[in-house]
Amino acid sequence: MSGRALDRFAEDVGIDGPVTVVGGRTQWEVGGPVDGAAREVRAPSGIVEFEPAEMTVRCGAGTVVAELDAALGEHGQGIVLDGPEGATVGGTLAVGRSGIRRLRQGPVRDVLLEARYVSAGGRVIKAGGPTVKNVSGFDLCRVLVGSLGTLGFLGEVVLRCRPRPAVSRWFAGEAEPFDLVHRLYQPSSILWDGTTTWLLLEGHPADVDAQARVAGLAEVDGPPPLPTGGRFSVRPSALRALTGSFVAEIGVGVVHTVDPAPTRELAPGVADLNRRVKQTFDPSGRLNPGRVAA
Amino acid sequence: MQAALVADLQQALAPDRVRASALELDLYARDASIISGHAEVVCFPLTAAEVQACVRVCRKHGRPFVPRGSGTGLAGGAVPVGDPVVIVTTKMTRILEVDADERVAWVEPGVLNLDLSRAVAHLGLHYAPDPSSQQSCSIGGNVATNSGGPHCLLYGVTSAHVLAIEVCLPDGSLVMLGGLDPEPSGYDLRGAFVGSEGTMGIATRIAVRLTPLPPAVRTLLLDFTSVESAAAAVSGIIAAGLVPAALEMMDAEITRAVEDFVHAGFPRDAAAVLLVEVDGLPAGVDAAASVVEQVGRAHGARTVRVAADEAERALLWKGRKSAFGAIARIAPNYYLHDAVVPRTRLVDVMTAVYDIAKRYDLVMMNVFHAGDGNLHPLIVFDRRADGVLERVMAAGEEIIQACVAAGGVLSGEHGIGLEKRDYMPLIFSADDLDAQARLREAFDPDGVANPEKVLPAGSRCGDLQKIPEGAWI
Fold first, then answer.
1. Which of A78, A217, B329, B360 lies 20 to 30 A from B191 at CA?
2. Model pTM greater than 0.90?
C-alpha cells in the first residue's frame, strides 16, 4: 500500500545528521529558522485511501491541502485544515495553527486520527489509529500536531473528514461581536478589527437565513484579508481590550496583527517538561535543529 | 513499614483521610473491571497541595501511587499493582468557577460528570462528553481515560473539551498544561496527559469547555428485524453525509432487558433498535431527521418512532443509559468489551462477534455507539459456574482479534489499563510502543505513577509479559 513510499521517506531522513522536512514553505518562519546545514527532505504525497462512508481519509503528509479538499469535495466532504495556498497536510499539522473557522469546527489538533512519522532514529512509527474514536495507548497524535517537526517527521496521516455544509455565507457590518457569539447558535466564524464585524454562517439554507436575520449584517463576498505581521492568542474575553491594527477571531482568541506578535515564555515547570519530551524523542537534536515549538 | 507510610500520610493530610483497614483496602482493590489488586494505603486529599504532599510521601517511602476517581473504569486502570498508595480524588468536588461568557468551567477532579452539566444547565450550557456512567464518574477520571459517550459522535471525546489541566507530576511538582487561550506555547502536553490513565501524574484542577444546549433536538427510535440491516442502516446514515449527535444500537437481548427495566416502549420483538439523535438549528434538524428516517426505511426499519417531547426523549435515553443496570436481572456478572472498527465494517464484525459468543456458549448482548463504530459486546455470566470465566476470557480475546483483523483498535473509550495492556502489540510495533513509553518517561522518569498500566512491560525494548504479579482476574 503506502509502505514503500514511507520506507523511502525514512531512508531519506536517515539516522544521523541534521535534517529538515519541507512542505509548501507557506509558514516556514514559524518557530524560527532551521540550521542551514540541515538536509531537506519531503514527505510522500497523494491520497492513499478515501472511503466516503467512513468519513476518513489516508494521505501522504506532502499532499497539498487544497488538492485533498477538492478530492473530498467531490463526495460532499471536506477537511478542517485551513493552510495558506500551497500548504501541505503535514506542514499544516506540524505548524498546528487552526483556520478562521475554528469557532465551530474546532482546532486542527482534533483532525488527526493516525500518524505514521519518521523518528529521529529513522524508524517509521505509528501513532494513534485509523478509526474515528480511539483510546488505545497514549495520544501521541496530539503531541505531534504543533510540534513543528521537532519530534518526528509526518509521513502519512489519517484525518477525520466532515460533511460540507449546504451553504456557506459571509456577512459584515458594525455589530457588537462579543454579543453575537451568544445570540447565534454555532456560528462558523466571527472576525473583528475593532470596528467592523465579519460573520460566517454555514448549514441548512433556512437556518442560515434565520441566523442572518438575528445578526442583522449585510452579505459580503468573504472575510477580510488577515494581517500577516504577527499572530498570537489570548483568552477570548481578553480580545475586548485589543488596540491597534488587528483582526481577531472572536470566541476563539486568535489575533492576527500587522506588528510582530509579543513574545512569551513557558512557565519553568512546563518548559522543563517540554525539554524532556524533545530530549527523549530526539536526543541528538537532529530534527529541524534551531526550530522551537513555542 | 506500612505503619511509617500511614503515619507520614496522616501527618500530611488528616488521620481520618488516610485509611488502611482491611475493609477499606478491599474496597479499593478493584475498579469496575473484573481485575483485582492490592492497595497498601488509601488516601483522600482535599486540595492540590495535599495531592502534592501525598505524592511526596510516596517518593520518600519508595512507593508507587495510583490515582483514582470514582472507580467506574472498566479496564483496570485504577486497580492497585505493586502495593501502591491509592490517591482518591472523590473529595475534591468543587466547581471552582463557571465563566458563561467564555463558556469555560474550572473544576476539581472529583466533580461528577453529570453534576457539572446540571450546574450549568440554567445558563443554557452543558458538558458534552456523556459516558453512560455520567451519574457516578468523575471529570478527573474522564480526563484519565479520555472518556467518550453517545454524544461524542458529533461533539468529540473528552480531549476536545479539556482546555487546561493543573497536574501534580510524579515528582510532586505542579504544572499547568494547556491554557484558556487557543494556542498555548510548547508541545500539546495537555493532549498527552488526557487519556494517560494516571501514568503521567494526577489532575488537580481542570478547565473544561462548556457547550451551548442545541436549540432543536430530534430523537428517533428505529427498529429492525435483523442486526445486519440495523448495522447497514448505520453505515448508510454516515454515507449520506450525516453526523448525528448520537447513533446508538441495541440488539434484541438488551432491548428486551431494558424494556423490562424502564418500560419505555422499546419493541420487545425487535432484532435490533437504533436510537438516533440529531440536534442543531430547526431546519437542519428537520432535514437530518428525514434523512435518518429515509435511510432507516430503505434498510428495512419496521417502525420509526420520533420522541414527541422532552419527557419521551428522556425516557428513551434512560433506557439506553440504564442498559448495564438492566442486565443485573439476567446474571450477576458481566464483562463489557470496548473496541472500535471502521464503521463500514460493522455488519461483518457484528456477525463475527455473535459467532464467537455462540461457539463459547455464552450469553452476549450488544449496546453500543454504532455511529463511530465503537462496539461494546457485553458477556453476561455467573462467575460461580465452573469454567465460565475461562470461556469469557477466551471469547473476549477472540472478539478483540476479530476487531483488529477488521482494521479496528483495542479501545474506543474505556482505555487500556491492565485489561488490554498485553494486547497492545496486536496493533503497535515494538517501535510504536517505544515511542509511547518515551512520552510517558518524560512525565514520569521513575515509573512511579500507576505503574504497569497501558504499556506492556519492557516497551522500551519491545518484549512482553502477562498480567503482573499481585493482580488477578
1. A78
2. yes
* Pairwise CA distance, residues B469 & A88, whole Å: 49
CB spacing of B186 vs A133 below 8 angstroms = no
Q: Which residues of B touch A255 (CB under 8 A)?
A: none
Q: What is the distance between the alpha carbons of residues B158 and B162, in angstroms, rounded to a whole number?
A: 6
- B374 pairs with which residues across the strands? B340, B369
- The cell numbers describing B368, all together, are 453500543
Q: What is residue A253's DSSP assignment?
A: -
Kindly list the distances between the CA atom of residue B443 and the CA atoms of A90, A115, B190, B454, in Å, as whole numbers in the listed order.
26, 22, 12, 15
Cα(A236)–Cα(B264) distance, rounded to whole angstroms?
43
Q: What is the pLDDT along chain B (473 residues), one digit of tens a residue?
A: 689 999 999 999 999 999 999 999 999 999 999 899 999 999 999 999 999 999 999 999 999 999 999 999 999 999 999 999 999 999 999 999 999 999 999 999 999 999 999 999 999 999 999 998 999 999 999 999 999 999 999 999 999 999 999 999 999 999 999 999 999 999 999 999 999 999 999 999 999 999 999 999 999 999 999 999 999 999 999 999 999 999 999 999 999 999 998 999 999 999 999 999 999 999 999 999 999 999 999 999 999 999 999 999 999 999 998 887 788 788 888 899 999 999 989 989 999 999 999 999 999 999 999 999 999 999 999 989 889 999 999 999 999 999 999 999 999 999 999 999 999 999 999 999 999 999 999 999 999 999 999 999 888 754 334 455 556 55
Bridge partner residues of A235 (DSSP): none
Closest CA to A254 of B101, B180, B177: B180
Please state the three-class secondary structure of A260-285 as a single string: CCCCCCCCHHHHHHHHHHHHHHCCCC
> Is B407 in Cβ contact with A138 (below 8 Å)?
no
ipTM of predicted assembly, 2 dp:
0.97
Other CB atoms within 10 Å distance of the CB of residue A179 = 11
Tell me how close the Cα of A80 comes to any Cα of chain B, in angstroms.
14
Q: How far is A274 from chain B (nearest CA, A)?
A: 6
Count other C-beta atoms under 10 Å from residue A256's C-beta. Answer: 22
Q: Taking the CB of residue B16, how many other CB atoms lie within 10 A of it? A: 8
Q: Cell for B351?
A: 456477525
Find which of B188, B441, B460 to mutate to test the A interface (most A CBs within 10 Å of its CB).
B188
Spatial separation of the C-alpha atoms in residues B165 and B176, rounded to whole Å: 6
CB atoms A131 and B369 under 8 Å: no
Residue with cell 514520569: B444
* Cβ contact B199:B453 at 8 Å: yes
The grid cell for B72 is: 467506574
Beta bridge partners of B219: B277
Cα-to-chain-centroid distance, residue B192: 17
- Neighbour order of strands in the sheet with B377-381: B303-306, B216-224, B272-280, B246-251, B363-368, B377-381, B333-336
User: In chain B, what residues touch A146 (CB-CB under 8 Å)?
Assistant: 183, 187-188
